[in-house]
Amino acid sequence: MNSGIDTDNSQSYSVNGPVYSTNGLFDLRLVARRQIWAADELVRVGRCLFCGNEDCPEVAIRQDGLVIHECSVCGLAYIDPRPGPEQLARYYSDGYFNGAKDFFQNKDYCLERDNAIRTEAVTGYREIVNHLDISGKRVLDIGCASGALLYLMRECGAGEVVGIDSAAYPIAFGIENYGLDLRCSDLENARLPDAHFDLITLIDVIEHVENLPSLLSELRRVLRPGGHVFIVTPNYLGYFLARDKWTCLYKDFEHLQYFSEQSLREVFRSVGIRLLKFWTESVPFRTFGYPHLYRSGIHRLLHPLVAAKNTLAQTRYKRAMATQLYAGSNLIAVLQGK
User: What is the mean pLDDT of the chain?
Assistant: First the structure.
C-alpha cells in the first residue's frame, strides 16, 4: 500500500515516553501535518487492546496519520499509537453531533435522526425487529445518542427502554422530545442492575470504546441469561477487498478498533456470549459525495467524474461479493449470552 509518507528511517519520535521508530508506517510528522490529533498527546499501547499479545504488525495507515495493527492471536485490528482520553473528549465535544466532523457532516445529528423516525430508517431498527422479538422485552442501547432507536422500539412494544451515552447534547434532546429514560454516563458508571436486560444494542459504538475488556465484562453482567446483543460496526474484512480504497481509512478517525467476524466472535466468547448469526452490507470502497444533491438523478449528470468513481466502486463491490460474501462495509451481528 502506498502510504504517501515522507520516510526517514534514521529518525525516531517519542510518543508519551517510549520511542516509536519511523521504520514502519507510522510517522509522527504526518500526524502533525494532518492536524486532526495533537501529535504530542498520542498514547502508545504496544500490544493488543483485547488479549495483550505483542505480535501485532502494522497493516494500513489512515488519512489522519494513525496506523492500524492486527493481532496475530485474536485477530482484532486496532489503532496504535492512538489519541488518549482527553483528546477524544475534545474531539466529541467539538461539534461532533452538530455536523462539524465527518460524522453527519454539516447536519445536526439529532434532527436527522428525528426525521428518520418517521420512515423507520434509524440505523439497526429494521434489522432488529426482523431478527428478534422485542415485545415486552427490556432493552438497553449503549451509545444511544438522542434515543431515536429506543423510541421506535418502544413504539414496537418493548417493555422497558434505557439508553446511555457520554454526550450531553443528544441525551438532553431525547429526554425533552421523546420522554425516554436516557442517562449521560458510560456503561461502567451507569450502575445498572445485574442480569436485567433481554436485549443490549451497540449501533456503531464498539469501535469507539477505549477500554474493551471493561465494557465486555460490564455488558455481560447486565445481560440476563439467554439475552441477546445486537451490534453494527465497521467490517475489518472490507479492508482486504478494498485495500487503500477502504472507506475507513478516510473518515471516522475517532474509531479505535475494527472487528471481523472472527475477532468479534473471540472477544465476546471470552465473557460467555456466543455469536449466533452475522452478515455484512454496503460498499467498503471509498465513495465520494456530490457537491450538491438534486432529485431525479440530475446530480450524476452535473458531476460525471464523481458519478463514475462511485459507479466503479459499486461495480467492484458487486463482483467481489459473488465470491467474498462477507466483505461488506458494515458487520451486523446477533449474539446471545449463556
Answer: 88
| Other beta carbons within 10 Å of 95 | 12
Whether 228 contacts 335, CB under 8 Å: yes
Cell of 56: 501485532
Tell me, what DSSP letter sits at residue 23? S
Residue with cell 478517525: 253
Point out which residues pair with 60 in neighbouring strands.
68
* CA distance linking residue 174 with residue 39, whole number of Å: 35
What's residue 311's pLDDT?
Answer: 76
Q: Are residues 169 and 233 in the same domain?
A: yes
Residue ranges with strand state E in 120-222: 138-142, 160-165, 181-184, 197-203
61 within 8 A of 67, measured Cβ to Cβ? yes
Q: What is the pLDDT of residues 175-216, one digit of tens each?
A: 999 999 999 999 999 999 999 999 999 999 999 999 999 999
> 101 CB contacts (<8 Å, ≥6 apart)?
91, 94, 95, 254
- Range of 196's domain? 123-242+255-337
Arithmetic mean of pLDDT, 251-269: 97
Residues 290, 297 contacting (CB under 8 angstroms) = no
Per the structure, the count of domains in the chain is: 2
Grid coordinates representing 3 are 502510504
| Residue 276 belongs to domain with CATH number | 3.40.50.150
Per-residue pLDDT of 131-163, as tens digits, reads: 999 999 999 999 999 999 999 999 999 999 999
Determine contact, residues 123/204, Cβ cutoff 8 Å.
Answer: yes
Burial 19-51 (b: 16+ CB within 10 A, else e): ebebebbbbbbbbeeeebbebeebbbbebbbbb
Beta strand 223-234 with 197-203: parallel, antiparallel or unpaired?
parallel
Q: Which amino acid is at 78?
A: Y
130 occurs within a structural domain: yes
Beginning with the edge strand found earlier in the chain, give each strand of the sheet holding 58-61 in spatial order.
58-61, 67-70, 77-79, 257-258
CB 83 within 8 A of CB 45: no
pTM of this structure:
0.86
